[in-house]
Amino acid sequence: MQTYGEKLEAAINKQIVVELAERDMTQKALAEAIGIERATLNRYLSAGKSSMPMPVLFRVAEVFGISPRVLLERAEARIAHPEARTA
What we know:
Blueprint: H1 4-22, H2 27-34, H3 38-45, H4 54-64, H5 68-80
Helix pairs in contact: 1-5, 2-3
């Protein structure tokens, strides 16, 4: 059984993928914008491989033009209503 933290981390990763798609942006472009290697970003976004550090999450939100709070709220909505926000 997943903990809430594990569910939230998976939801954040999924939301980042959705935000990328909505902006027609690649993982490579996002990685370059936040100053990390694409492979590192891919590890963060792959469930269970490596947790994304908070400073990186903050930079991701900044690149998307949203606050980290908004990104987290959208991720939490995925947990509460997984059928409501699919992509």
